[in-house]
Specification:
Layout: E1 14-20, E2 29-32, H1 49-52, E3 56-60, H2 67-83, H3 89-92, E4 106-114, E5 117-126, E6 129-138, E7 143-150, E8 153-156, H4 164-172, H5 180-184, H6 195-202, H7 212-228, H8 230-243, E9 247-256, H9 259-271, H10 275-278, H11 286-289, E10 292-300, E11 307-309, H12 316-334, E12 337-340, H13 349-360, E13 370-375, E14 394-400, E15 403-408, H14 420-425, H15 438-455
Parallel strand pairs: 3-13, 3-14, 12-13
Antiparallel strand pairs: 1-2, 1-4, 4-5, 5-6, 6-7, 7-8, 9-10, 10-11, 14-15
Length: 460
């Protein structure tokens, strides 16, 4: 039996993202995930996307240097594609110009692959809404314009297989803060280039952040899929075993929701606007009626020495690892793009290396999954015992005054023996905080002097 070519399944990947006049980035910057050896628009005969596009991108930098601003648009754009039709405010969040260019446009230029078609989507915003929106597709050799939107007017390429009824339907939704993709996804016969919109739903996973609300939502999701699907519960156990946190077993405990709490839950859902379901009780499924409190119970030890701990008693690091590892496993399974802000938050450096190693392992990452993350963990730049990242996978965000820049490590002149970790600490690449202890010393001396004068006693 011929061994399957797993590279052939890697057909949904992020190629590049360019920002201009967004938050701390006043000028254009590009995060390019295409390998430097890839010089054509499409893979040549016998090549595949998986071999030509980087599986990881790591963004290093000091606090407030702009690391998070590089990846934030991916999360906001996904939300906007999903929701701008019913909630235009989600797109307004993306109009966030640099303070020195408040009257200028904000531009997002993204290239990605969906179902082996290369797309380029350029979105331009100003204070009034969408200035322009352009989608080009490269199916074989050259680019074809799929649509071109200016303000509320949109023109589709009539030579493509997008039915006129679909084009007319989409045109009706073109208001200032609604994306074309959001309207396009509602059409029943969208044509073969709908993958340009569906990529944001199917291939880009929800962004992982350190925000408490995001963590709670993600944790509830992890519990839910572990409760419903036995294979995900096994993967959860495997994740905890990998972390070596002393957990011998794990189970999901379900307790029925009290009626008073269930009634409050119903009211909150109704206030959230989910009226289509809640106004028609016949549409309610069993999960909407039988609500449960679900939580994870951790088992430690074996035999007579075994004991159980609730989530509240388990370490934060265990929970953080569990809630990051499961989305990573999902990305590896589906060949999705996973974006994590501050991947090292509450995680041991060994676990961070473990996680990013999954995406660089061709035997684990057979479907072209990608991991894009920000971090302060400079040990990832060292050889412990080997380098955790390829040099073309490393980027540095640095702020000069009030403007951020983004620079790739391979833009610096480096030789193989160079210790990148030490050079980073020495400031060769920038992107490190400039610490100065003399100011603190003077401030403490001043405070001690005031204490001395107030007490009238001699300070030793």
């Amino acid at each position: 039996m011929q061994k399957p070519d797993f590279y052939a399944y890697s057909k949904c990947m992020l190629l590049s993202m360019t920002l201009e006049n967004y938050r701390s980035f006043a000028e254009e910057v590009t995060l390019d995930l295409q390998r430097r050896s890839f010089h054509t628009l499409r893979p040549r005969l016998g090549e595949h996307w998986r071999a030509l596009v980087l599986p990881r991108a790591a963004i290093f930098g000091a606090n407030a240097a702009g690391k998070s601003n590089v990846i934030a648009p991916l999360g906001h754009l996904k939300t906007a594609v999903l929701s701008s039709l019913r909630n235009p405010d989600v797109l307004k969040r993306l109009y966030d110009p640099h303070r020195h260019k408040m009257g200028d446009d904000v531009v997002f230029d993204l290239e990605y692959v969906a179902d082996d078609i290369r797309y380029r989507w350029v979105l331009t915003l100003d204070a009034q809404g969408v200035v322009s929106e352009i989608l080009d597709a490269n199916e074989k050799r050259s680019w074809k314009e799929v649509f071109h939107r200016t303000r509320d007017e949109i023109q589709f390429n009539k030579n493509l297989d997008i039915p006129k009824a679909a084009r007319d339907n989409i045109s009706e939704f073109m208001t200032p803060w609604v994306l074309t993709f959001s309207a396009w996804l509602t059409v029943k016969t969208p044509g073969r280039f709908i993958g340009g919109a569906r990529w944001w739903i199917d291939s880009l996973l929800p962004m992982v952040t350190c925000d408490d609300e995001d963590r709670d939502t993600r944790h509830a999701w992890v519990i839910d899929i572990a409760a419903k699907h036995g294979h995900w519960l096994k993967l959860l156990k495997l994740a905890l075993s990998t972390a070596d946190v002393g957990v011998s077993d794990v189970r999901v405990v379900e307790e029925k929701l009290p009626e008073d709490i269930k009634r409050i839950h119903f009211i909150v859902n109704r206030e959230s606007g989910d009226l289509e379901i809640l106004d028609d009780p016949s549409k309610l499924g069993i999960e909407d009626i039988e609500n449960y409190i679900k939580y994870i119970e951790f088992r430690h030890g074996e035999g007579d020495d075994a004991f159980s701990l609730s989530e509240d008693d388990e370490s934060q690091g265990t929970r953080v690892w569990m809630d990051v590892a499961i989305p990573a496993y999902l990305a590896l399974q589906k060949g999705s793009v996973l974006v994590i802000d501050e991947i090292d938050s509450s995680l041991h450096p060994a676990l961070v290396r473990e996680l990013i190693g999954y995406f660089g392992d061709p035997e684990l990452n057979t479907n072209g999954a990608q991991l894009i993350f920000t971090t302060h963990d400079i040990t990832l730049l060292g050889k412990h015992p080997i380098e955790a990242l390829d040099r073309e996978e490393v980027w540095f965000a640095e702020k000069h005054g009030v403007e951020s820049t983004l620079v790739a490590l391979d833009e610096f002149a480096l030789r193989e023996p160079h210790n990148i970790e030490r050079r980073y600490f020495q400031g060769v690449f920038g992107a490190v905080p400039i610490t100065e202890g003399s100011g603190l010393k003077l401030a403490l001396e001043s405070m001690r002097r005031k204490d001395f004068e107030a007490s009238g006693e001699s300070a030793e």
